[in-house]
Amino acid sequence: MSQKRKSQRARHAEKEEQKAKKVINWIFGVLIVFALAFVIISMLSNF
């Protein structure tokens, strides 16, 4: 495999890894927002 192809493959793998990290961060963010909303709603329903 040529050196150019290896570097392209490495760059592509790095971009894919960055995308995966971004997706995971979004998922955790949404879960935290839902958890906070659930806590707020459950606190308001006690009154």
Major beta sheet summary: none
What's the Cα radius of gyration? 20 Å
Instruction: Work out the oligomeric state of the chains in this entry.
Output: single chain
Percentage of residues in strands: under 5%
Order of helices and strands: H
Helical segment count:
1
Globally, the shape reads: rod-shaped
Give the mean pLDDT.
94
Give the structural class: mainly alpha
Please count the beta strands (DSSP E, at least 2 residues each): 0
Please mark out the parts with pLDDT under 50 across 5 or more consecutive residues, or reply none: none
Portion in helices? over 70%
From the N-terminal CA to the C-terminal CA, the straight-line distance is 68 Å
For this entry, give a set of tags:
47 residues, 1 helix, 0% strand, mainly alpha
Q: Overview of this structure, please?
A:
With 47 residues, the protein is mostly helical. It has one helix spanning 3-45. The radius of gyration is 20 Å and the shape is rod-shaped. The termini are far apart. The model has no long low-confidence stretch (mean pLDDT 94).
List the helices and strands and how they pair.
Blueprint: H1 3-45
